[in-house]
Inverse folding.
């Protein structure tokens, strides 16, 4: 197996908080035991990074992957951390860093990563599933890579960035990827890479490039997919948005009001109000209070949410408890968020 590194969403080695020993899994609800699945978990392959000229530490490449040259020996520590947090399975993915690569290099990077992911899953099929990498800067190639990853390698879909070198995901140029994902029934996980054009305003104290910039990019990407008609052209898409969908679910009604208030800006007629599309998407549960999770469920539907941690970044080690302790959710809704929905969408067997 190629060297494997478990890293944060920017590729940097991250601190991992784990309990000293596994704690009882609070997700075992009265409906019976079920597999708890984390849909937002990162890793990297140093061999693929090297193809792009990246090495550890990559301080000269801010925001690009930093990697540790490690192998299978990192996996036991990750499994221990998962057990400690009550997580049975993680869906591994790699945040894109290869969108500047020409086709031949992009093929090499993606092949290295997807074959590596498939090998990790084959070694630990009860603990890991994976989402493929695709070279979205070359849309037809990306569609071919997705099909190979799903049909041949057994991966469950793809992770893509929230934009592609400044181009919006709603650009019709990317329709080959959307068409192939819809045809395959494959999940597409949109993960932000920040908003580099706002780097100056987001500099300074507070890590705003990540804390604000990442959910902002998701908000922009989803809004364009709605307003440019992408979701109308491909109504069967299964799109998962990171970080609870960014800011969009919290202020989506302004999108409806904007059409009424400024009708001249409504350039692409839609089949339904903008807010209605929020219930066609899926979201991870990486919001930070019970009220935030309750509100997200109220806005988009509890049946659209799946547990996500952004592991190994130490945003939380209580993602399971977060769902179990949020008031107002039915037991079936908690079970869906904890793993039943992910299992259904990704074709993962639910433990009974």
């Amino acid at each position: 197996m190629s060297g494997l590194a478990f890293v944060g969403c920017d590729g940097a080695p991250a601190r991992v908080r784990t309990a000293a020993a596994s704690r009882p899994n609070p997700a075992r609800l009265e409906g019976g035991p079920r597999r708890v699945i984390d849909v937002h978990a990162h890793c990297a392959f140093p061999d693929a990074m090297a193809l792009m000229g990246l090495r550890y530490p990559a301080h000269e490449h801010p925001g690009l992957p930093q990697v540790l040259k490690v192998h299978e020996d990192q996996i036991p520590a990750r499994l221990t951390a998962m057990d400690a947090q009550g997580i049975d399975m993680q869906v591994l993915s790699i945040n894109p860093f290869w969108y500047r690569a020409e086709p031949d290099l992009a093929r090499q990077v993606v092949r290295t990563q997807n074959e590596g992911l498939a090998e990790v899953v084959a070694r630990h099929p009860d603990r890991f599933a994976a989402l493929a990498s695709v070279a979205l800067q070359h849309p037809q190639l990306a569609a071919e890579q997705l099909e190979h990853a799903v049909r041949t390698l057994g991966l469950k879909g793809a992770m893509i960035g929230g934009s592609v070198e400044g181009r919006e995901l709603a650009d019709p140029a990317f329709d080959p990827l959307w068409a192939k994902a819809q045809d395959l029934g494959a999940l597409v996980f949109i993960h932000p890479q920040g908003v580099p054009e706002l780097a100056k305003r987001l500099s300074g104290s507070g890590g705003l490039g990540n804390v604000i910039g990442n959910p902002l990019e998701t908000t922009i990407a989803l809004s364009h997919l709605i307003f440019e008609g992408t979701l109308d052209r491909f109504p069967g898409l299964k799109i998962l948005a990171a970080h609870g969908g960014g800011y969009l679910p919290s202020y989506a009604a302004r999108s409806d009001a904007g059409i009424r208030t400024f009708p001249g800006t409504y350039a692409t007629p839609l089949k339904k109000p903008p807010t209605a599309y929020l219930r066609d998407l899926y979201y991870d549960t990486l919001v930070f209070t019970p009220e935030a999770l309750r509100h997200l469920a109220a806005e988009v539907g509890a049946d659209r949410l799946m547990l996500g941690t952004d592991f190994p970044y130490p945003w939380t080690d209580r993602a399971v408890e977060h769902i179990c302790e949020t008031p107002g959710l039915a037991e079936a809704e908690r079970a869906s968020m904890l793993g039943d929905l992910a299992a259904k969408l990704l074709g993962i067997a639910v433990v009974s």
